[in-house]
Amino acid sequence: MIREHVTLAVQDHGGKGTPLLLLHGAGRTLADWAAVAPLLARHHRVLAVDLRGHGYSPDGTWSIPEVLADIEAVLDTHGIPGALPVGHSLGGMLAVRYALDHPGVTPGAVNLDGYGWGRPGQYVGLDPAYVEERLAQVRELAATVAGQLVPPGGLKDLLAQQRAMSAQLGIPYELLEAGVRRSVHERSDGQLELRPGREHALEMLAEIDSLDPFELVRRMDRPLLLGRALRPVPSVPGLDRFDELMAAYAKGLARDLAELAHSRAEVTVADIDGTHAMLLENPRPVADAILGFAAGLSDDRP
């Protein structure tokens, strides 16, 4: 089947060596890689992209096959079809899926903290029925805020939130500001919205729910780096009712990743000193984990 693709916005960080393609998370942009990419480009050819409907990339129906076709087109255009896909959050799941769909071409994959909401049994100490109920609330909340419009003066409020996050997590404010400004776009009616827009954001959420990261890992027969954030995201007023859920999931995730690393020779697990915002919060250990993994790949393709 022929897949339609959109022409993605690309930031070329240059460099030489094994090519890397950097993929961001849901609702984020290539700006998330601003602190990590220069560290990687000392040893690798590095490209970062805005996924369809994000940042400066065009809109399009948000489905996994179309997104993968976008990625393939970028690599073909730049003459690096054998690049190593490196993703964070949703981008990490896409990296693994891309590698699975391109056997014999893609040397492996890197998934940094991209595990979705998991399975009820991964929430250590909690009743599965209770977990299902709470996850339904999480999904409902995510759908409510998907593709939200920015009210008059709202951009100022968003930037104020980023400044508070900068102080809380120690992330340089200019990195957070760049991400917000890249995500907020003016619609044809003059209103501002956070990309992706609501229609495509809801499509994206449905696609995320369709992915089982551990099932993807079980299918992988090439080297795979799985990164895990060691620290929880700080509690947010109004969302702290989910703190118990997230703490239980962190325990189950640590358990299951350790089992994977023990049972699968091709899987490497890296514990990253940071929260889910690791790319901006603590770029050096993220880059070191990627560099160490890439150095171990036997096939150094141009």
UniProtKB/TrEMBL annotation:
GO MF annotations in UniProt: hydrolase activity
Domain AB hydrolase-1 as annotated: residue spans: 19-114
Gene Ontology CC terms, in alphabetical order: membrane
Gene3D superfamilies in alphabetical order: alpha/beta hydrolase
Keywords: Hydrolase
PANTHER family: HYDROLASE, PUTATIVE (AFU_ORTHOLOGUE AFUA_2G14860)-RELATED, MONOACYLGLYCEROL LIPASE
Name of the featured protein: Alpha/beta hydrolase
Phylogenetic placement of the source organism: Bacteria, Bacillati, Actinomycetota, Actinomycetes, Kitasatosporales
